Amino acid sequence: MNKNSGKKKLFVISGSSGVGKGTVLKSFLTKNPNFMLSISCTTRAPRKGEVDGVNYFFLSKDEFQNCIDNDKFLEWAEFAGNRYGTKKKYIKQCLEEGKDIILEIDTQGALQVKKQMPEAVLIFICPPSLETLENRLRGRHTEDEATIQKRMQEVKTELERAEKFDYKVINDDLANAVAELEKVIIGEQKC
Ligand code: 5GP
């Protein structure tokens, strides 16, 4: 486990669907259990095995809209036809409890967080190539063809937004990517 010396920081990790950011993060969190992964709200239906309050807080469209209207989100975005958002209260609570927090959100949301909290550290996990990314996305067998096409269109826009991120980590090999992510995060904590 790595020692957390300084002030608590908010780390925001984004990457295109299928880039393997979930696997990289899971591995990082296993090695660094002092970090907490934020739980987002979404209007997307749960996938097989996903649990409400664990993977996401699954909200109806009306519930989500109500949170927007009442300014409850630190950030929110529409992604591939669904809405996703991070509750302000949840993040505030985690930081107050002295937790190191990681948000795994899309690039639109990440840039919104940076505007409101310039001290947040934005890290983008890149695929080695677009072809590798499309293959990985298909290999998950969780999305239909139309969704895959829609998500690949998002990739180019996301890569453009990633130019504004603080760091990029290429996921060519899991162990390398995790080591690189650790280097970035631990390095930032020392600042
Ligand atoms: P999935 O449906 O595959 O779980 O997630 C789709 C996308 O939504 C991913 O890029 C994921 O990072 C992003 N996402 C998850 N939670 C949030 C959130 O709270 N806010 C934003 N802006 N994006 C999110």
> Numbering strands along the chain, what is their spatial order in the largest sheet?
2-7-1-8-9
Structural class: alpha/beta
Q: Quick check: average pLDDT?
A: 90
How does the major sheet shape up?
5 strands, parallel
Question: Which small compounds were modeled alongside the protein?
Answer: guanosine-5'-monophosphate
Low-confidence parts, pLDDT < 50 over ≥5 residues? 1-5
Strand content: 15-25%
- What are the secondary-structure elements, in order, as H or E? EHEEEHEEHEHEHHEH
Count of runs of 4 or more consecutive helical residues? 7
Number of strands: 9
Q: Roughly what percent helix?
A: 40-55%
Backbone CA Rg: 16 Å
The coarse overall form would be globular
How far from one another are the termini? 19 Å
What's the arrangement of secondary structure elements?
Layout: E1 10-15, H1 21-31, E2 35-37, E3 40-42, E4 56-58, H2 61-69, E5 73-79, E6 82-87, H3 88-96, E7 100-104, H4 107-116, E8 121-126, H5 130-139, H6 145-161, E9 167-170, H7 174-190
Parallel strand pairs: 1-7, 1-8, 2-7, 3-4, 8-9
Antiparallel strand pairs: 3-6, 5-6
This protein binds guanosine-5'-monophosphate (5GP).
Guanosine-5'-monophosphate is lined by residues 17, 40, 44, 75, 77, 79, 84-86, 104-106, 108-109.
Main location: cytoplasm
Protein name: Guanylate kinase
EC number: 2.7.4.8
Describe the structure.
This is Guanylate kinase. This protein is 43% helix and 23% strand. The chain is α/β, with parallel strands linked by helices and 191 residues long. The strands form two sheets. A five-stranded parallel sheet has the order 2-7-1-8-9, with helices on both faces. A hairpin with a 2-residue loop joins strand 5 (73-79) and strand 6. Helix 1 crosses helix 7 (174-190) and helix 5 runs antiparallel to helix 6. Mean pLDDT is 90; it is low at 1-5.
